[in-house]
């Protein structure tokens, strides 16, 4: 049965949140992390994206201690394999590869090494890096790590900041914005998919125009059915 609350919640047009018609955060590459498990599921998800009016997606698989085999070379291999099949079924849907970097113990070494997968931003030649933190705790020295990213010539983009509501508030994010940190919001947070507190913080940050871009953070083939997004 179709949940009644979905009939009355606000729907956002694709161009409102995604003016370039591109999902900026999605775990679409099969079998590399806790996202899409098969090529068929990935192709299905692309179909759902297209139904919402999207024309492309930035694939952002996790790079973290939890997935020790993920690095730019292995991810490019998996991405290219999937992209060939995706192009055959969805020839006008653009796929790009980036990554979502966890600010864990391994990250400083990766940053120093320099072999990273930047997060593309249309019309902006500066290098951006999509990063995240654990939702259950804030790692020690996390602001120093964000500063290190800036000093290495990248603009850190903190994924789904509203999900850190247990530890950080709008005032903290305003200070980070002034430091040069940018934010990517999860579309599902707008309707409480991550709980009411995350939704409240998300809406406040939206009103204060703290988000630079939005993404689905989709991990499964039918993720878009839960999002308040329409073409």
Give your account of this protein's structure.
The protein has 231 residues and is an alpha/beta fold. The protein has one domain (20-226): TIM Barrel. 34% of the residues lie in helices and 18% in strands. The strands form three sheets. Strands 4-6-7-8-9-10 form a six-stranded parallel sheet, with helices on one face. It has a three-stranded parallel sheet with strand order 2-3-5, covered by helices on one side. The chain has a two-stranded parallel sheet with strand order 1-11. Helix 8 (196-207) links the parallel strand 9 (182-186) and strand 10. Helix 3 packs across helix 4 (72-89). The longest helix has 18 residues, at 72-89. The chain is globular and about 45 Å long.
Features:
single chain; 231 residues; alpha/beta; TIM Barrel; six-stranded parallel β-sheet; three-stranded parallel β-sheet; 11 strands; globular; disordered N terminus
């Amino acid at each position: 049965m179709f949940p009644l609350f979905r009939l009355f919640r606000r729907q956002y047009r694709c161009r409102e949140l995604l003016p370039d018609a591109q999902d900026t955060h999605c775990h679409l590459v099969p079998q590399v992390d806790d996202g899409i498990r098969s090529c068929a599921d990935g192709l299905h998800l692309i179909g759902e994206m297209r139904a919402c009016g999207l024309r492309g997606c930035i694939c952002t698989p996790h790079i973290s201690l939890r997935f020790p085999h993920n690095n730019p070379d292995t991810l490019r291999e998996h991405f290219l394999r999937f992209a060939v099949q995706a192009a055959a079924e969805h020839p006008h849907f653009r796929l790009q590869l980036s990554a979502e970097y966890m600010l864990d113990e391994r990250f400083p070494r990766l940053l120093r090494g320099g072999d990273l997968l930047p997060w593309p931003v249309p019309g902006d030649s500066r290098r951006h890096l999509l990063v995240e933190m654990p939702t259950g705790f804030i790692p020690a020295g996390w602001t120093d790590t964000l500063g290190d990213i800036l000093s290495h010539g990248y603009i850190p983009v903190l994924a789904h900041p509203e999900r850190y509501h247990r530890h950080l508030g709008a005032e903290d994010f305003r200070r980070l914005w002034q430091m040069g940190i940018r934010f990517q919001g999860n579309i599902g947070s707008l309707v409480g998919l991550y709980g009411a507190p995350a939704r409240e913080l998300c809406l406040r940050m939206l009103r204060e125009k703290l988000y630079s871009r939005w993404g689905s953070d989709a991990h499964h083939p039918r993720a878009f059915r839960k999002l308040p997004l329409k073409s």
